[in-house]
Amino acid sequence: ACSIGTGGLVVTPMDHPQVAPDKGLHTIPHAIPGKWILMGAILSGGSSLSWFYKQVILGRGKTLKSENSYQSLFREVSPTPAASKGLIFLPYLKGERTPYLDPQARGAFIGLSLQHGRRDLTRAIMEGVVFALRQSLEKFKELGIEISNVTTWGGGAKNKLWRQIQADIFNLPILISPTQEGSAYGAAITAAVSVGIFSSIKEACQEWIRIKEKILPNPKNVAVYNKAYLIYRGLYSKLKDDFHGLSEL
User: Fold this and answer.
1) Does the pLDDT value for residue 64 go beyond 80?
2) What are the strands of the beta sheet with 213-215, ordered from one edge?
3) Rounded CA gap, 79 and 76, in Å?
């Protein structure tokens, strides 16, 4: 599963704990006894887009009037091609967790030119967040964990374009639930089991969880994103020392 809220998470259930601190992953107990969750996390997911919209597009001191303002921005971004005309965003606005565990990492736009406008910058932010989450999925694969699809939750599941970007960058089918509030839904399921409405988490999930939509990757976009991801993946190591130097100024 993938969640893009203020930050961002990718998680997968496991039968046995996996300890992989060198990959920046976290292992926590599952709500189902005897099960575990492997998690990769980024610090600036939706907050990267929120920062750009409030500080750059609206301007400091102005306030967001409604969620419709974001939807208007998304509609503006839709015609922009995959990989944002060769523009990459590193979403390290608060440092980064998986896979770097580096509080001194810093955000950046790479490839910026006079051809780029705000719609390109906006799309690059959306793509950069998903590139960062793809790194966690790649770390899962290095541990021998195969992922066949991704259920997406949170703010990143509310917008059609961002859902498609996830499918294309992950190159996996994206499953959409009727609700995007995954944490609250999970808490409700756990509570329902606790008070005896259901006998187990498994039974509760079978009764309550539904998939309303399945989004498939666009092969043309997948090819573009695979090339962009290889560049994205190499940028942190090239810029790490500069990030650390800037953080000390």
Assistant:
1) no
2) 26-29, 36-42, 8-14, 2-4, 150-154, 174-176, 213-215
3) 7
Helix (H) or strand (E) holding 8: strand 8-14
Rounded distance between C-alpha atoms, residue 131 and residue 48, angstroms = 13
Q: Does pTM surpass 0.70?
A: yes
The ranges of the chain annotated as CATH 3.30.420.40 are 2-172+217-247
Within 13 A of 104's CA, how many CA atoms are on the CB side? 12
Asked whether the predicted pLDDT for residue 238 surpasses 70, the reply is yes
Q: Please give the Cα distance from 49 to 7 (Å, whole number).
A: 11
CATH ID of 2-172+217-247, from 3.30.70.250, 3.30.420.40, 3.20.20.330, 3.10.20.600:
3.30.420.40
Helix (H, G, I), strand (E, B) or coil at 81: coil
Locate 28 and state its tokens: 């926590």
